[in-house]
């Protein structure tokens, strides 16, 4: 070992030599001394960090990232190189699956090949992740000479086990991996700051940065990209770094090519699923300044499931347990004090990184004292910046500087001889440990961990694979479930997708597939969960290429899926399904059903296409009424019947103007049909899946006797806290149905309903019926107002429901009815069953768009499919089914009506004309009769009522089509067919068969001869699909509203070559990226220095004495004012202006106390007065306290010197001497906050 005396001349030499020798000096011991204690401690710390993952629920697999990696990693990685995911039965673009190719996927693959159990492979990956983060920060602290070895280890532990990592480790570790690489990115970029670095050194640093950018992985490109901001700021804040930043950018771009180029393919050809998942209002709801600074900014960590249990146990504990709130706030505050003490380049970098990260994450937070531009920021995050919507991914921009500052403070305390300082250091260590609350409480694991996937799933996977080998087709999982949460455990994705090799269809949380196909799946789930006969369900699924259905019995009740028993009842009773066996028992049971006449590819005669106005989901109803034959194609032409457009064969009411919440099941996800003036579905988070989106071309709710209406809230809003179904909307108060009612949706004690009558006749009285029954609270008082005239408050007696509200004088204008709950009800729900005005007709009706020619176009109307046997009030339609259709001419139609019996045990039905209901079309009436057997009634069959007239006359203009209920039956489907001679007959069947890897995007289709034909795949329509015949490209067409099809000209039998072009681009991108990584590796190896050649002397960037010129006092004052007030405004609006101005008055010597103290106070306020509710005292005061911290940091940034120096005085090397010398008193100047 070299003697310490030889170290001095080397310290000012080249960067790499400097750091190696400094490290040797710090660990020097004379011959014969005991083992180096620091090195032993380091080894023990590394072992402890490596051991920790193995203590987390040993033997249990956690729902981390992708279940495919624990069950079939190599198969999944092999599929990931294809752009098109043919394993998803209806097809979709791979969503960054290629990102698992490195480094995460191979870790699981190698472990799987070595025979390691799934849980052990998972723990190996976690160990790598934690060690990379731990060793990266430990080395960064030592190379920056911010602290000694032991303090560096503590800072590294604080980073590797920070709240964000603990939140994600057992849930989504791939998102935490880029954060682990972040300190290494800074280390790789650091040599570029040295002025004397030669070209070889520059190339080596650039190559190392590029390789690390490659190692970030592409599982989550947004998280990886945000990590590159950290080294970018590190270079940007140094004069020499700015000169070389272009080289660095080239290096990281080269390294990231392998995940950037496929991302461009996804962006160019993927479906717009970002509009239907979480919104910016959700992701920024918890990003208050104190939450962001303490590291608990992930919105999922604050969510409870329907049973009141944390969605992410570890994240919830870290974010909301009292000890954790106080500890994480205190640790962050102390770390930020250290950040403020950093000087020159390190100070600028650390402060700028913290402020950039904080502003980025908080600017969209709309609290009581939140950002004044939160609305605009959220609009951007929901629009062009949607990939960055989950702002919490930027946490490392704050966390890395915070732990560097923590090291500075701890090291200064450690080196002090004062007892108080030593005790403070010990207390700080305890605080750092307390901030890791999930570990000490044993809640780091997810509560849904499982030992193994039940054997029944593997058995069923083998069965469906064997069936697919024989008969082809996909397998559909019922009932739909947004998350894979089962009674036996929680998985990230459905286990069957990893166990089965054949194509699988299931409704995932993110609608990655063709939107029309997603609409079909949601409707199929509604129909299947009715428990009743569904004649068109099998036919619709067969057209989707679904040949089998697996019914899952073990979906957890917290998921909100429909009951499996109802699904099996529907399959058992409906035509086209056959039971094919089961696997497992109890909640592990899976049942298998076959679907008849399923085809993965079909050919239809082009001239026989059925042109349909509506949504793709109308396919099920068209099949039910016989309007669409199995050998007939359907062209869903959207919602237009305008003049000049292709005349449709059928107009439906399926594509209704509604708001949509994709986060819940389809039965609960849609609002009732809205008025055309209601623009709620225009907003992200409420948009309907395409082809919906234009109320001018969709069925809308038309008001009768009113020009507008509104309510304080609605239980029919799918985002309401007390969602009660679409039948609880405002329309229910005006439908004259005593069984329906408008209900409040947000637990208001005071609620209101308003409407504006179209009549100008002054009114003085309003009649209301108060809603009562299960789940409703009693109304204590009611008041009516009309325009500026207010009636007296009417007290409601117990048991009273019908009220006549009077005004002191007659008035015109908007009518407002105010309700107040009786007593002090907890989470009240109140409502109105009926609202009427004497002498006026008030109501609403669903109106179809455009004009219909009854001689050329049929009309198909259906009752809300959400209404089924177990929840008869769930749909939005009252007992009388009513629609408005505008006819362009008069004529005759042939009516058909399908009804259901309200009582399954009523026995056989024999209803004479008029007893089965009455169909009315304008002024025309057609009585209905019905004959049904007891078996049909018992099975809940869809019964076809016979009209007592062969046809019905329709008049020109808007006509109300209605079917009044009969004796125990009510209408479900109404089909007004153009006269009997104008029916649509399907042509002869055209044979079609697929060959090759068509589902992966490269295959052939052999079709029979004939006239112009349409070949339809069971893959989602996408402009990336191409088909050619004899070298000639074929025009693409969308079939059934979602399927990929191609038009084949008339001729003999032919073979089509079908490809998905983007797969070539994705594979090319992966190859180019791999070559770029290889080139970077060669460059890194080739540019390594041989030997230890000295370089020209130059200033050491870690030397704090090289501070450069300080800015003038006037400039510092102005900059401090601008930054402090500016940051305050962005975070807290006008209150932030006051806070920023007050921060300028804090004496310089107290700035550090202000930074640490304000964060500590914020933690106490959040813990004691509320952390989640933005209106709570804790959230309001905590936001102000956090803003104080940020404003003081902004002020410090203004005063940092402009030179290229480093941080505070370096930790001195241990001098030769006795094995355990007393620590020397620091001779370095006391670091002060670099502020004005």
UniProtKB/TrEMBL annotation:
Single GO term (MF): glycosyltransferase activity
Domain Alpha-(1->3)-arabinofuranosyltransferase N-terminal GT-C, chain residue ranges per copy: 50-680
Ranges of compositional bias, category Pro residues: 1209-1236
InterPro entries attached to this UniProt entry: AftD_N
Enzyme's top EC category: transferase
Spans traversing the lipid bilayer: 97-117, 124-141, 147-169, 213-235, 247-271, 322-342, 349-368, 396-413, 420-440, 1065-1085, 1121-1147, 1153-1172
Keywords from the named record: Glycosyltransferase, Membrane, Transferase, Transmembrane, Transmembrane helix
Enzyme Commission (EC) number: 2.4.2.-
Sequence segments annotated as region (Disordered): 738-758, 1203-1236
Pfam families from the UniProt entry: GT-C_AftD (PF11847)
Name this polypeptide is given: Arabinofuranan 3-O-arabinosyltransferase
Organism: Allobranchiibius huperziae
């Amino acid at each position: 070992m070299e003697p310490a005396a030889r170290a001095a001349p080397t310290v000012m030499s080249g960067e790499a030599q400097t750091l190696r020798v400094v490290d040797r000096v710090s660990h020097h011991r004379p011959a014969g001394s005991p083992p180096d204690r620091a090195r032993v401690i380091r080894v023990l710390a590394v072992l402890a960090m490596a051991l920790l993952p193995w203590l987390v629920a040993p033997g249990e697999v956690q729902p981390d990232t992708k279940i495919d990696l624990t069950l079939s990693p190599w198969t999944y990685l092999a599929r990931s190189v294809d752009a098109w995911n043919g394993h998803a039965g209806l097809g979709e673009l791979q969503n960054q699956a290629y990102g698992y190719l490195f480094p995460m996927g191979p870790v699981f693959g190698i472990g799987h090949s070595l025979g390691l159990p799934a849980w052990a492979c998972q723990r190996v990956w976690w160990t790598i992740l934690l060690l990379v983060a731990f060793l990266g920060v430990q080395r960064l602290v030592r190379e920056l000479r911010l602290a000694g070895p032991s303090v560096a280890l503590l800072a590294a532990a604080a980073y590797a086990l920070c709240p964000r990592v603990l939140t994600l480790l057992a849930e989504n570790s791939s998102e935490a991996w880029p954060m682990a690489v972040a300190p290494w990115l800074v280390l790789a970029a650091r040599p570029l700051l040295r002025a004397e670095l030669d070209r070889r050194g520059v190339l080596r640093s650039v190559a190392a940065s590029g390789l690390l950018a490659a190692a970030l992985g592409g599982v989550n490109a947004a998280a990886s990209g945000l990590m590159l901001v950290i080294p970018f700021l590190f270079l940007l804040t140094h004069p020499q770094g700015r000169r070389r930043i272009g080289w660095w950018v080239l290096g990281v771009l080269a390294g990231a090519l392998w995940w950037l180029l496929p991302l461009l393919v996804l962006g160019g050809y993927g479906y717009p699923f970002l509009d239907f998942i979480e919104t910016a209002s959700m992701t920024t709801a918890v990003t208050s300044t104190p939450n962001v600074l303490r590291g608990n900014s992930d919105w999922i960590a604050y969510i409870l499931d329907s049973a009141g249990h944390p969605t992410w146990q570890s994240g919830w504990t870290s974010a909301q347990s009292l000890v954790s709130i106080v500890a994480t706030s205190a640790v962050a505050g102390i770390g930020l004090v250290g950040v403020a003490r950093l000087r020159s380049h390190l100070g600028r970098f650390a402060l700028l990184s913290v402020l950039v990260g904080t502003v980025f994450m908080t600017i969209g937070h709309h609290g009581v004292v939140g950002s004044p531009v939160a609305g605009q920021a959220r609009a951007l995050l929901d629009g062009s910046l949607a990939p960055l919507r989950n702002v919490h991914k930027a946490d490392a921009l704050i966390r890395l500087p915070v732990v560097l500052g923590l090291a500075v403070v701890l090291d200064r305390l450690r080196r002090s001889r004062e007892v108080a300082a030593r005790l403070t250091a010990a207390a700080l260590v305890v605080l750092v440990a307390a901030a890791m609350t999930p570990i000490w409480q044993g809640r780091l694991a997810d509560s849904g961990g499982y030992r193994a996937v039940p054997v029944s799933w593997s058995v069923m996977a083998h069965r469906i694979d064997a069936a697919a080998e024989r008969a082809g087709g996909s397998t559909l999982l019922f009932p739909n479930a947004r998350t894979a949460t089962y009674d036996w455990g929680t998985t990230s994705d459905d286990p069957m997708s990893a166990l089965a090799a054949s194509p699988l269809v299931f409704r995932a949380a993110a609608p990655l597939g063709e939107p029309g196909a997603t609409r079909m799946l949601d409707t199929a789930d509604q129909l299947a969960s009715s428990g009743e006969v569904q004649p068109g369900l099998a036919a619709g699924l067969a057209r989707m290429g679904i040949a089998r259905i697996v019914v899952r019995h073990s979906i957890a009740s917290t998921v909100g899926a429909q009951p499996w028993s109802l699904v099996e009842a529907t399959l058992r009773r409906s035509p086209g399904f056959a039971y094919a066996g089961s696997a497992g028992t109890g909640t592990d049971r899976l049942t298998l059903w076959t679907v008849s006449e399923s085809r993965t590819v079909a050919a239809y005669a082009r001239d026989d296409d059925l042109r349909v106005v509506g949504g793709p989901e109308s396919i099920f109803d068209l099949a039910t009424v016989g309007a669409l034959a199995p050998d007939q194609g359907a062209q869903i032409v959207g919602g237009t019947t305008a003049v000049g457009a292709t005349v449709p064969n059928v107009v439906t009411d399926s594509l209704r103007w509604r708001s949509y919440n994709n986060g819940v099941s389809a039965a609960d996800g849609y609002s009732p049909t809205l008025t055309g003036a209601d623009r709620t579905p225009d907003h992200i988070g409420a948009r309907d899946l395409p082809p919906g989106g234009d109320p001018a071309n969709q069925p809308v709710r038309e008001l009768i006797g009113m020009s507008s209406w509104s309510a304080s809230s609605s239980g029919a809003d799918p985002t309401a806290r007390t969602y009660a179904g679409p039948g609880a909307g405002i329309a229910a108060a005006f439908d004259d149905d005593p069984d329906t009612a408008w209900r409040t949706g947000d637990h208001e004690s005071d609620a209101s309903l308003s409407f504006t009558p179209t009549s100008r006749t002054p009114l003085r009285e309003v009649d209301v019926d108060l809603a009562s029954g299960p789940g409703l609270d009693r109304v204590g008082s009611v008041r009516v107002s009309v325009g500026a005239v207010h009636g007296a408050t009417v007290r409601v007696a117990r048991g009273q429901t019908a009220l006549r509200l009077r005004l002191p004088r007659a008035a015109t204008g908007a009518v407002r009815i105010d309700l107040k709950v009786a007593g002090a009800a907890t989470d009240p729900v109140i409502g109105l069953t009926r609202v009427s005005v004497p002498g006026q007709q008030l109501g609403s009706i669903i109106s179809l768009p455009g004009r219909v020619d009854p001689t050329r176009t049929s009309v198909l109307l259906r009752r809300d499919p959400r209404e089924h046997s177990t929840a008869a009030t769930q749909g939005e339609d009252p007992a009388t089914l009513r629609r408005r259709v505008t006819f362009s001419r008069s004529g005759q139609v042939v009516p058909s009506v399908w009804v259901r019996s309200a009582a399954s045990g009523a026995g056989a039905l024999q209803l004479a004309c008029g007893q089965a209901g009455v169909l009315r079309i304008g002024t025309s009436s057609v009585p209905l009769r019905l004959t049904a057997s007891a078996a049909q009634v018992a099975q809940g069959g869809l019964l076809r009522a016979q009209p007592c007239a062969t046809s019905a006359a329709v008049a020109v203009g808007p006509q109300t089509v209605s079917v009044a209920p009969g004796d125990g039956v009510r209408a479900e489907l109404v089909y007004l067919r153009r006269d009997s001679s104008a029916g649509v007959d399907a042509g002869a069947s055209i044979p079609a068969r697929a060959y090759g890897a068509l589902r992966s995007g490269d295959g052939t289709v052999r079709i029979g001869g004939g006239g112009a034909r349409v070949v339809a795949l069971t893959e989602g329509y996408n402009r990336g699909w191409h088909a050619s015949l004899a070298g000639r490209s074929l025009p693409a067409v969308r079939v059934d509203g979602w399927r990929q099809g191609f038009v084949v000209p008339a001729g003999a039998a032919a073979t089509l070559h079908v490809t998905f072009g983007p797969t070539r681009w994705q594979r090319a991108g992966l190859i180019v990226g791999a070559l770029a990584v290889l080139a970077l590796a060669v460059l890194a190896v080739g540019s390594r220095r041989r030997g230890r050649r000295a370089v020209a002397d130059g200033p050491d960037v870690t030397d704090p004495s090289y501070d450069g010129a300080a800015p003038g006092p006037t400039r510092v004052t102005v900059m401090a004012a601008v930054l402090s007030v500016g940051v305050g405004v962005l975070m807290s609006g006008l209150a932030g202006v006051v806070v920023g101005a007050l921060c300028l008055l804090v004496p310089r010597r107290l700035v550090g106390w202000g930074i640490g103290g304000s964060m500590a106070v914020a933690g106490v306020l959040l813990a004691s007065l509320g952390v989640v509710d933005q209106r709570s005292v804790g959230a309001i005061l905590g936001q102000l306290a956090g803003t104080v911290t940020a404003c003081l940091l902004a002020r410090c940034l203004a005063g940092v010197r402009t030179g290229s120096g480093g941080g505070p005085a370096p930790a001195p090397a241990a001098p030769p001497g006795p094995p355990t010398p007393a620590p020397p008193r620091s001779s370095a100047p006391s670091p002060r906050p670099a502020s004005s």
